[in-house]
Design a protein that fits this description.
The complex is a heterodimer of chains A (125) and B (78). Chain A is of the alpha/beta class. Chain A contains five helices and five strands, in the order βαβαβααβαβ. In chain A, helix 1 links the parallel strand 1 and strand 2. The two termini of chain A are 23 Å apart. Chain B has a four-stranded mixed beta sheet, covered by helices on one side. The chains are: A alpha/beta (125), B alpha+beta (78). The interface between A and B is medium-sized, with 17 and 14 residues.
Chain lengths: 125, 78
């Protein structure tokens, strides 16, 4: 990802398709931040990890916002980074190689901690 | 004197954050000093565009409201 000029934001996504609004707003914020020249990492934990399974985003719609798939495509196209919690996917028996869309990196707590410590702002949804 | 845009972008009907994203993409294609006219119907677009201009450094030259349409003239800086 190219270095943007206005700092770095970490956005933690902890809700999946069971809560469309909380699943969608992190991507809204992420896309707006990227468009404002701010580097963004979305961090997926808990049921938030379900959002990056292939075919999931296509089924998530929150009133008042663009469809999640549209936002996710824009986020990836604009160079946003995605980190996914390793234990959260292991406990759900998810095989990231087979089941995730392209792009997310599986990490553990120390990476999230370092990312948050280095960021200008952290948002949690 | 009215501002003459080099390009016009109609974001009518689009909801947050798409007007900002499309504005950024349109501005990226302009030369420094050129002007983009952007039209949005999202009621939050005025504070959003002001915040976006503050963060990116592009200059919000003019704002008009015509019914439910919010019209912005943005000059590309840098």
């Amino acid at each position: 990802m190219s270095e943007k000029k206005n700092g770095k934001m970490i956005i933690m996504v902890t809700h999946g398709p069971e809560d469309p609004e909380r699943a969608t707003i992190p991507f809204v914020m992420g896309v707006a931040a990227l468009a404002s020249d701010i580097d963004v990492t979305l961090g997926f934990q808990a049921s938030g990890v379900m959002l990056i399974r292939k075919g999931c985003a296509e089924h998530v719609f929150a009133a008042g916002f663009p469809p999640l798939k549209e936002l996710m495509d824009a986020y990836i196209e604009e160079g946003g980074t995605m980190f996914v919690c390793g234990p959260c996917i292991q406990s759900r028996k998810i095989d990231p190689e087979q089941e995730f869309i392209e792009g997310p990196v599986v990490v553990n707590a120390a990476t999230f901690v370092a990312e948050c410590a280095e960021a200008t702002n952290t948002l949690i949804y | 004197m009215a501002v003459e845009p080099n390009e016009t972008l109609d974001c009518s009907g689009l909801s947050c954050p798409m007007p900002i994203l499309k504005t950024k993409k349109a501005i990226d294609k302009l030369e420094s000093g050129q002007v983009l006219k952007m039209i949005a119907t999202d009621p939050g677009s005025k504070p959003d565009m002001e915040a976006w201009a503050r963060k990116t450094g592009h200059e919000l030259l003019e704002y008009q409201q015509d019914g439910d349409k919010h019209i912005f003239f943005v000059k590309k800086v840098g």
